[in-house]
Backbone:
């Protein structure tokens, strides 16, 4: 394990989550599964306790801790996509695997982890600031999954 990693709390099924991420995103894989050396609150010796995995090159650790703590939108993975095809592929994988849509490019996977599937054109427009950012932001606000063509059109549109 590296010196720093993102640590996520899962109620259960962390290995399945890590395997899903590995199958969905490039530079992602399950690195190790560790089992409890003895009984613990909510679990028994030999149960899966932690899972080390990598998502898009980011080292992560999953703790299987039961229902005490829940995932929230206070943490999310932001995935920048090149185009609509890539946006659709990631969005559909997450939402289509028991996840749910949210607003403005956000969705949750079936384990409750939040993801921002953000086309590069949107990030670039926001970084420009001014009227370009305002038009892109206004176009994005009513969206669930980001529509790249609509953002491109908003960026190109002249201020009214």
Residues:
């Amino acid at each position: 394990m590296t010196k720093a990693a993102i640590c996520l709390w899962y109620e259960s099924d962390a290995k399945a989550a890590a395997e899903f991420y590995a199958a969905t995103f490039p530079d992602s894989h399950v690195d190790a599964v560790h089992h409890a050396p003895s009984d613990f609150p909510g679990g028994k010796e030999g149960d899966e306790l932690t899972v080390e995995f990598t998502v898009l090159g980011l080292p992560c650790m999953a703790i299987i801790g039961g229902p005490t703590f829940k995932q929230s939108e206070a943490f999310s993975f932001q995935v920048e996509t090149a185009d609509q095809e890539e946006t659709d592929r990631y969005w559909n994988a997450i939402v289509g695997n028991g996840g749910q849509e949210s607003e403005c490019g956000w969705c949750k996977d079936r384990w409750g982890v939040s993801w921002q599937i953000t086309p590069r054109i949107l990030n670039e427009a926001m970084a420009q600031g001014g009227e370009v950012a305002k038009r892109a932001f206004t176009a994005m606000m009513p969206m669930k999954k980001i529509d790249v063509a609509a953002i491109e059109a908003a960026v190109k549109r002249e201020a009214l």
User: Anything to note?
Assistant: The chain has five helices and eight strands. Helices lie at 14-24, 84-96, 120-128, 130-140, 148-156. The beta strands are 6-10, 29-35, 48-55, 58-64, 76-81, 100-101, 106-108, 114-119. The mean pLDDT is 95.
